[in-house]
Design goal:
Largest sheet: 7 strands, mixed
Strand order of the largest sheet: 1-2-6-7-5-4-3
Shape: globular
Radius of gyration: 30 Å
Strand content: 5-15%
CATH class of the domain at 102-290: Mainly Alpha
CATH superfamily of the domain at 102-290: Transferase(Phosphotransferase) domain 1
């Protein structure tokens, strides 16, 4: 393994032998494959993206090699890290993202609205970072398959910097390169014009608008349309169908839709910059209470990815046997039996259909019975069955006619199929049985019918979800009662295979009080933990479900149980600002100074998020205002860093030490407030006798830092309170020298006046 700069953590040219022998192929793309590999020396997982050079035109891989070392220097939370190359395998070595692409997740799981908003915001953060480069780094290949997901479903932008506009390049050649990667849906209309201008940042903004639509709808844009059709529609100002956005959506979704429409504006000059978009998406995400990372200093993320419930559940992209479209002048189609079904001419259909038709296989391995069931006419279904149709025939995705009937809620046809031998336990390719689909829909009539005909109440699909999990998550109380009547006590607490969540976890996460109460009465364990050691109390406390929390506490839930990161339910409630829940937990024995793995108390987290009422409440219950977390950071340090002056005032009023120093660099809260340009916090600290001439490990005073960051009011406040402008830092610089170095000329004038 050759380190290009001598550091194993910098840009590296890996050898094949540096990796263990078992390379696991996790994806295939147009020009190669992606493998999960494990580095022998560090025992860490990486992604190795190989390039088939016979398919890559114009020395594409060679260009990537030339660019890779520069791209690898970019480090940001929401963009993919590149660690080096493996030239022996013509591959790039990158950060491994365990949950694959957003494209795959959208197709396989249902995302709750908070998670959708979070992902949109995180994507805007990543793109804003790329565009903030000088000059801006254009992605030109932004799509859901190039947005990847980590263990906790946080996103990272990948494959940026791989497509370039080159001087003298024709629009035609540029278009060919884009469409070769399947990007037609993401290309803005100005690219289709003969105008020779190169793409600008507005190109990526348009692509981001399409990505937003995909996240909101969980559908593919322009599905089934040819490249030519998409070109024509986009050129004429048409965009993906807005009606595909679910009707049941939060009020904030209208604002998110407005942002999306601005991003895909026909006139590229009307599209917003990502710096503006991320502020708006951040505000909307906050409204829906999305948990986020915490950043107590610019070099060290002292927070961690919290173990919140994944706001997703198994989902099927259903491909139902809908009637094909027939040209109006096609006589053959008019005479076909499918055409008669499409026109709902059921009488003619029954007269025309013959025994040989029932075994005909249509696209996707669909049979005539699938189409007849989808038509909704029970008499026609009975007729086709009497002609010998196989009642349990399956499509390419494993859908039986019974599954199709369940999805359409065709109760009479469901009964008819079951009478003719339809197997109630037969699942599709993902092992979703008819009972799973009926439960997801909240169709208690079908659930009862299926259970009476032999459906297995505790059947698990491939991820381990039982119908009861789905009913509890979606709040279908009647269905839950039906399922519980057929389940053993053991099955009531059956764990979900991947995340380890029980039905009680899911009911608690989504605030379904009656269901939680019902499960507890049936013996569900309130202290059962999922794979992250979170209990139902952790999840309901984080989501703000007061009544569920009260019910769990009544049933013996442990208030101090730590999850895998050491977070108690009180930590999560404090972080999210749920005052009522904090009060309940504290009155039920929650320890106000319990610590996470990184040493954070609930007060640290309340201060971090600006919940001043929570700080007061915790302090009144014995919480320590001077508790030290990782690197010695106190709640006061965090409040100053986050520019939360109200919290600073509350902490100081509760006797927080204004001159406490953190461990690693010796920073006082006043130092932190100065680098955060938090003028009100500076005033609060000075009023409580903070030392204006305190020095950190680098001998920098608050005045040095205020001069560097160019905050005139803070410099004036420090000078008025006897800040010593002659003090030297470890490099021998005064505050004046720092202001000159940073070209803060107004501050230079202020400091020169006293010289």
């Amino acid at each position: 393994m050759d380190c290009l700069d001598g550091s194993p953590r910098q840009f590296v040219n890996f050898k094949k032998d540096d990796f263990e022998a078992d390379w696991i192929k996790v994806a295939e793309w147009r020009f190669g494959q992606v493998y999960q590999v494990k580095l022998k020396i560090w025992r860490e997982k990486y992604a190795l993206k190989s390039f088939d050079t016979t398919l890559c035109a114009d020395n594409f891989y060679r260009k990537i090699v030339d660019e890779a070392s520069n791209i690898a220097k970019l480090k940001f939370k929401y963009i993919m890290s590149i660690y080096g190359l493996c030239t022996e395998a013509t591959a790039v070595v990158m950060e491994y993202m365990s949950n694959g692409s957003l494209n795959n997740l959208l197709a396989s799981h249902t995302l709750m609205w908070p998670k959708k908003f979070q992902m949109i915001h995180e994507a805007s953060m990543g793109m804003n970072f790329l565009h903030s480069m000088k000059p801006p780094l254009l992605h030109l290949n932004l799509k859901t398959s190039n947005i990847l997901l980590d263990d906790h479903l946080h996103i990272k932008i990948s494959d940026f910097g791989l497509i370039h506009w080159e001087e003298d390049m024709s629009k035609m050649l540029f278009m060919e390169r884009l469409t070769a990667r399947g990007n037609i849906s993401y290309i803005p209309p100005e690219t289709f014009t003969p105008c020779p201008n190169p793409p600008e940042t507005t190109f990526d903004v348009y692509s981001f608008g399409i990505v937003m639509w995909e996240i909101l709808t969980q559908q593919k844009p322009y599905a089934g349309c040819s490249v030519t059709t998409v070109l024509l529609q986009v050129s004429q100002g048409k965009r993906p169908c807005m009606e595909m956005i679910p009707e049941q959506k939060p009020l904030e979704c209208e604002q998110m839709i407005s942002i999306m429409e601005q991003c895909w504006e026909q006139d590229c000059y009307k599209r917003p910059q990502f710096s503006d978009t991320l502020r708006k998406t951040e505000a909307l995400s906050e409204v829906l209470k999305i948990p986020g990372p915490i950043h107590p200093d610019k070099n060290n993320d002292v927070g961690q990815k919290l173990d919140y419930p994944c706001l997703v559940s198994p989902k099927h992209k259903i491909t139902l046997p809908e009637m094909p479209e027939f040209p109006s002048d096609n006589q053959y189609c008019k005479d076909s039996i499918l055409y008669l079904l499409s026109q709902k001419d059921f009488s003619s259909f029954r007269k025309s259909v013959k025994r040989e038709h029932v075994s005909t296989q249509f696209s996707g391995k669909k049979r005539l019975l699938h189409y007849t069931v989808a038509s909704g006419d029970a008499e026609s279904v009975k007729h086709v069955l009497n002609l010998g149709a196989e009642v349990n025939c399956v499509t390419v995705r494993g859908y039986t006619p019974l599954i199709v009937a369940v999805l359409h809620r065709l109760h009479d046809i469901i009964s008819l199929l079951l009478e003719h031998g339809a197997v109630a336990t037969q699942g599709d390719e993902d092992q979703w049985t008819p009972l799973h689909f009926a439960t997801q829909n909240g169709d208690d009539r079908t659930v009862r019918l299926l259970l009476d005909k032999g459906a297995v109440a505790d059947a698990q699909e491939k991820s381990g979800w039982m119908p009861l999990h789905l009913a509890c998550q979606n709040g279908h109380e009647t269905v839950v009662r039906l399922l519980l009547s057929r389940l053993s006590e053991e099955a009531v607490v059956q764990r979900e295979e991947v995340q380890g969540r029980t039905p009680l976890h899911l009911a608690s996460t989504y605030g379904h009080l009656n269901i939680a109460r019902l499960l507890l009465s049936q013996g569900a364990d309130p202290n059962s933990t999922d794979s992250s050691l979170s209990t139902a109390l952790h999840l309901s406390a984080a989501q703000g479900h007061n009544r569920v929390v009260r019910q769990l506490l009544t049933n013996g839930a442990d208030t101090n149980s730590p999850n895998s990161r050491g977070y108690s339910p009180l930590h999560l409630a404090a972080l999210k600002g749920h005052a009522g829940i904090c009060r309940q937990l504290l009155s039920n024995g929650a320890m106000p100074d319990s610590r996470t793995v990184q040493g954070w108390t609930p007060m640290h987290l309340a201060a971090l998020r600006g919940h001043e009422a929570m700080v007061v409440q915790l302090q009144s219950e014995g919480g320590c205002v001077n508790a030290r977390g990782e690197n010695g950071w106190t709640p006061l340090h965090l409040a100053c860093h986050q520019n939360e002056p109200e919290v600073v005032a509350k902490l100081l009023g509760a006797n927080a030490d204004p001159n406490v120093t953190e461990d690693s660099e010796g920073w006082t809260p006043l130092h932190v407030a100065c680098i955060s340009s938090s003028f009100p916090s500076v005033l609060h600290l000075i009023s409580q006798h903070a030392d204006v001439n305190a020095v950190n490990a680098g001998k920098a005073t608050p005045l040095h830092l205020a001069a560097q960051h160019g905050c005139v009011p803070i410099v004036k406040a420090l000078l008025l309170n006897e800040a010593d402008r002659t003090m030297l830092d470890s490099s021998g610089s005064t505050a004046l020298n720092e202001a000159q170095r940073c070209e803060k000329w107004e501050i230079v004038q202020l400091l020169e006046k006293g010289c």
